[in-house]
Backbone:
């Protein structure tokens, strides 16, 4: 997922120092899941409402975990905000549009791409074409249209190559 975020940030023409921050945030985006019970993390079916409430705490938990590490200060905001939605219906704060840190808007797409193209406890992986279509369909709602536009310019082959390289490691 981190490699996907870096590819999107590069496609947007972001400077290296900003890409480094995004890479750190992407790499650590789910660190707060350390504090979520395994029975919820590994549940093969849809989460119950109270389980969803617990799962959503991972953003705050991750934010707090890296809070005392100075070089992660900017990445911390990505960790906290990667489940915000462009239309304001996300969590934990309900941020809207440009209120969401750019890195978190990039990580949201990279995370979705990775989720769709990976086997998960509740479903099998799907193709990059399916993921691309899904992400495009949520442009302006879940995802920042400008980030989606940059994402759409990246050929599937690059994402497939990155995934193969990561899966080999």
Residues:
């Amino acid at each position: 997922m981190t490699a996907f975020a870096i590819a999107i940030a590069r496609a947007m023409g972001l400077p290296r120092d900003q890409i480094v921050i995004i890479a750190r945030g992407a790499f650590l985006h789910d660190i707060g899941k350390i504090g979520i019970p395994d029975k919820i993390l590994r549940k093969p079916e849809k989460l119950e409402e109270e389980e969803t409430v617990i799962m959503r705490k991972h953003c705050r938990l991750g934010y707090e975990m890296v809070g005392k590490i100075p070089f992660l200060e900017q990445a911390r905001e990505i960790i906290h905000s990667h489940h915000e939605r462009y239309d304001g219906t996300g969590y934990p704060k309900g941020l809207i549009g440009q209120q969401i840190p750019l890195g978190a808007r990039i990580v949201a797409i990279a995370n979705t791409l990775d989720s769709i193209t990976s086997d998960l406890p509740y479903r099998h992986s799907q193709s990059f074409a399916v993921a691309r279509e899904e992400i495009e369909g949520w442009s302006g709602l879940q995802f920042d249209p400008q980030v989606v536009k940059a994402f759409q310019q990246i050929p599937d082959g690059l994402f497939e190559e990155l995934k193969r390289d990561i899966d080999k490691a």
